[in-house]
């Protein structure tokens, strides 16, 4: 454990891995160069030698090996349960960090107990933006903010609607106050729901452009199985946070989003539609971990429009998003929040 008294020496990094042998070494080497107090790797059943690389090459890294893979959220919660430092940084295993990244992420937390910071995340080679925090929409949709734009964009720090689960930082006490990730999520959308809970608890999500992470992120093409996890998580989030009165008031926007997501699922053919239907069935019937609902407070911190430049394949598609955003704005305005 580092004891130099620097800001990063007061932080522990949690990395949840699953078959990331191609990336884990770079992730850990660049993270160790930042001199955190500790790095905890939670390996959730890798079969490609990831565990061996961590154990052999990084003896100072704490390696946890749960008996079964219960998902990304559970893995991070397991890692954070081992932490006794002031700050926690969650980091994906298929990343590498630019020098000074962790300090830049932690600096805005020094005088703000109720804040989460998220970095500028570029593609692994640094050519384009992966995300600058997320755009979390009031219908449960989540988008990468600034996707595929030039790395020279998004240069100002600002408060945003959603953190990126690929990397974010907060006080360890705050992570525990929020109960960490909701463990009902196995994969995808857990960061969206955590952002909704941050909004519920009036926690600022702050984008920090001086903190830069490089992420091995695939293009927008979505495998049909991912459609299942994303949509299941969206339904779950809506059920967890919206009461019946607000859900009825939002029905035009929710039905419009169903139309958009069904159209997107169609692009993956019959498998896409099958997984969309599975998501409807499971997302609307699974048990929901309860919160003290205050949808008005949450909705005022979420995005009203969806990005028109994402998941766009032709001019007709882009025009459809413009019409959708007009409808979203009107429906939101009628809520009188």
Would you kindly provide a written description of the structure presented here, covering whatever features stand out?
- The protein has 337 residues and is an alpha/beta fold.
- The chain has two domains: 8-215, Spore Coat Polysaccharide Biosynthesis Protein SpsA, Chain A, CATH 3.90.550; 224-335, no CATH class.
- Helix content is 39%, strand content 18%.
- The strands form three sheets. Strands 3-2-1-4-11 form a five-stranded mixed sheet, sandwiched between helices. Strands 5, 6, 7, 10 and 12 form a five-stranded mixed sheet that branches.
- Helix 7 runs parallel beside helix 10 (269-285), helix 9 runs antiparallel to helix 10 and helix 9 runs antiparallel to helix 12 (315-335).
- The relative contact order is 0.12.
Summarize the structure.
The chain has twelve helices and twelve strands.
Overall mean confidence score, pLDDT: 95
Give the terminus-to-terminus CA distance.
48 Å
Secondary-structure element string: EHEHEHEEHEEEEEEHHEHHHHHH
Uncertain residue ranges: none
Q: CATH architecture of the largest domain, please? A: Alpha-Beta Complex
Main pleated sheet: 5 strands, mixed
- At the fold tier of CATH, the topology name of the largest domain is Spore Coat Polysaccharide Biosynthesis Protein SpsA, Chain A
Classified by CATH, the class of the largest domain is Alpha Beta
Number of strands: 12
Name the CATH superfamily classification of the largest domain.
Answer: Spore Coat Polysaccharide Biosynthesis Protein SpsA, Chain A
Keywords: Glycosyltransferase, Transferase
Organism: Halobaculum saliterrae
Domain Glycosyltransferase 2-like: 12-178
GO molecular function, one term: glycosyltransferase activity
């Amino acid at each position: 454990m580092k004891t130099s008294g620097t800001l990063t020496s007061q932080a522990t990094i949690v990395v949840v891995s699953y078959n990331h042998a191609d990336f884990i070494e770079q992730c850990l080497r660049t993270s160790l160069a930042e001199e955190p107090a500790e790095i905890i790797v939670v390996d959730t059943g890798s079969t490609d030698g990831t565990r061996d690389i961590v154990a052999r090459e990084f003896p100072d890294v704490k390696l946890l090996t749960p008996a079964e893979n219960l998902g990304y959220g559970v893995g991070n919660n397991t890692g954070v349960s081992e932490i006794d430092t002031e700050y926690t940084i969650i980091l994906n295993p298929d990343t590498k960090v630019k020098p000074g990244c962790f300090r830049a992420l932690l600096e805005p937390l020094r005088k703000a107990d109720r804040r989460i910071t998220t970095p500028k995340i570029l593609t692994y080679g640094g050519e384009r933006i992966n995300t600058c925090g997320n755009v979390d929409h009031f219908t449960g949709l989540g988008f990468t903010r600034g996707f595929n734009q030039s790395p020279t964009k998004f240069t100002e720090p600002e408060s945003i609607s959603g953190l990126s689960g690929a990397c974010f930082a907060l006080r360890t006490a705050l992570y525990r106050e929020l109960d960490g990730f909701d463990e009902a999520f196995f994969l995808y959308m857990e960061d969206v729901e955590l952002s909704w809970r941050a909004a519920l608890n009036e926690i600022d999500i702050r984008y920090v452009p001086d903190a830069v992470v490089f992420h091995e992120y695939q293009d927008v093409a979505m495998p049909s199985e991912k459609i299942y996890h994303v949509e299941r998580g969206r339904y779950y989030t809506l059920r967890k946070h919206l009461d019946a009165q607000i859900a009825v008031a939002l029905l035009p926007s929710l039905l419009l989003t169903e139309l958009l997501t069904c159209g997107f699922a169609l692009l993956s053919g019959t498998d896409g539609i099958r997984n969309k239907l599975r998501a409807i069935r499971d997302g609307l019937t699974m048990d929901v971990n309860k919160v003290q609902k205050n949808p008005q407070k949450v909705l005022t911190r979420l995005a009203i429009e969806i990005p028109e430049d994402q998941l766009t394949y032709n001019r007709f598609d882009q025009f459809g998003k413009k019409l959708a955003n007009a409808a979203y704005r009107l429906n939101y305005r009628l809520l009188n929040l």
